Amino acid sequence: MVATGVPTVVVLIHGRPLAVTWIAEHVPAIVDGWYLGQETGTALARVLFGDVNPGAKLPVTVPRSAGQLPMFYNLKPSARRGYLFDTTEPLWPFGHGLSYTTFALEDLRLDRTTMAASESATVSVDVVNTGGREGDEVVQLYVRDAISSVTRPVQELKGFERLTLAPGARRTVSFAVGPEQLRFFDRAMERVVEPGEFEILVGTSSAEVQSVTLTVTE
Questions:
Q1: For 41-84, what is each residue's pLDDT tens digit?
Q2: 123 and 21, same structural domain?
């Protein structure tokens, strides 16, 4: 069917990530439905005919092959070595998802760049609908502890906000960054916020992020 040149959409109905590398490389559009329940037909028809603009995001990381497993976004810095000389990148990252419009994130900023461990800062970003129709975007907040007493993931999801924007509309999304977002279990199994630098990452998926640096003092 793809070889005929007829515009093709693949609809995936499943309960776990599938091996769909060939589909991703050859088919221009994929609707990832997971299990939609008794209204599957109605929901898919509304999406495929453009009555509804989908705006969901992947709750998992989708690997390129079984040889990459296990695959997840919050890996440790030394994890995910190459497999059979192929890329270590996933087919689709955690938090990924497209719609019938496009969005841009602009002017990522902190209201303060230095704070005490018991205080909070606010990170803000402007979200712009750069496409031609109304749609939803899910802005995601991740945190990375640059240097810590125990090994930490390269990024951890700490918040998200879904918003609906008309074409050309702009809205500011803000997240609080404080002890709840920065603490972790140390070697004594106590939840602490250690002084140092933290990368505050905001984006539309775990792979499409912008970052600013927050310094935490004693």
A1: 999 999 999 999 999 999 999 999 888 888 999 999 988 777 67
A2: no
